[in-house]
Amino acid sequence: MATSTRTGRTSSFSRNSSSFSPASSSPLHQQQNPGIKLGPNASAFVSSGIPDLDRILGGGFLLGTLVMIMEDSDAPHHLLLLRNFMSQGIVHRQPLLFASPSKEPRAFLGTLPSPLSSSSSSSSKDEKQEEKGLRIAWQYKKYLEQPAIDPHSKDVKQEFSNDFDLRKPLERHLLGAKNIECVTMQDSSSLAVIRDHCSNFLTKLPRNDGSNVGRIAIQSLCAPQCGYTEMDWDMVSFIRSLRAMVRSSNAVAVITFPTSLLPPSFSKRWQHLADTLLSVGSIPDEDKDLAKLLTGYQDMVGLLHVHKVAQINSQVPVILEATTFSLKLHRRRSLVIERLNQAPVDGSSGTSYGTAGSCSKSSSVDF
């Protein structure tokens, strides 16, 4: 009798496992949407279109957040991130709103990359894993063996985030979907017009409805073609309003902007309003010092800096292992983001990692 009483009594610190399940805590999970991945603290992620960037950010772009990308005046690397973000949404059949300073924004859709085939994607992932091992023991390449391939695990990952072929455009039948809306900012003399487009788009994606997820992509918000040069406070108000609307909807917004066209004080305000803040930079063609310092310098096309990572329902800050990464084109086809690695010194890979901290003090790159 005592035994039955003891087993029936539950502690105040124990959780009733029968009444709790992740599926019941979020309507998004019930839809089994391949374009959504659940995260900690009742959060959800959508893919950035770059698997490496998703891993760096802890899963992707948080649903209901504003992502801002600072452009580089010397190279259009921000377009690589923007195109992959848009292509991933189109592949997942997610509604897309694209605003551009060009006169014909729909023409930009013709430059979106197409997903890699399953065979090409598998071979590229195998080579990336091999190259990662070579950074640790690069002199033992001849002793490496090909690891066993688990096709099931790779298929699961590709459902959420695809590798895209930058040389192959997206298929036309995908670009003709009804849920793709393109807006030019040249015809909008006031930011209220763009705000109305965003508001109408987001009203179709309420937060309580997990049927679908929308994406908003705004290219070069403060470009001269937009005519917003003397509307600094209006642009700040627009960003603040867009952030509030996205937070209460099932959507993610990405804005790219050239910092060189903004006053320093307003550039700081823009950066403060971003939930996730990224920046891209170009690499000098003939920087001998940097070429000696970094491995794979010849394959780099640019740098990616992570300034801020979004967090929801948590007060714990996100601390990354590194904040500066290299942008590479694998076989000139797919975009790869890798952590910077110092070149081996005297044929020893251990020395390079041991001195990475001291080298970062005198260099603009962060290991």
UniProtKB/TrEMBL annotation:
Specify the superkingdom: Eukaryota
Q: Which UniProt keywords apply?
A: Cytoplasm, Nucleus, tRNA processing
Which pathway does UniProt place it in?
Answer: tRNA modification; 5-methoxycarbonylmethyl-2-thiouridine-tRNA biosynthesis
**What residue spans carry the region label Disordered?**
1-40, 109-129, 346-367
Q: Name one GO biological process term.
A: negative regulation of anthocyanin metabolic process
* Transmembrane as UniProt keyword: no
InterPro entries registered for this protein in UniProt: Elongator_complex_protein_4 (IPR008728), P-loop_NTPase (IPR027417)
GO CC annotation: cytoplasm; elongator holoenzyme complex; transcription elongation factor complex
Its main subcellular localisation, reduced to a broad class, is: cytoplasm
Give yes or no: UniProt keyword Protein biosynthesis. no
Where does this polypeptide localize?
Cytoplasm; Nucleus
* Low complexity bias locations: 1-27, 112-123, 347-360
Name the PANTHER family on file.
ELONGATOR COMPLEX PROTEIN 4 (PTHR12896:SF1), PAX6 NEIGHBOR PROTEIN PAXNEB (PTHR12896)
What protein family is recorded?
Answer: Belongs to the ELP4 family.
Protein name according to UniProt = Elongator complex protein 4
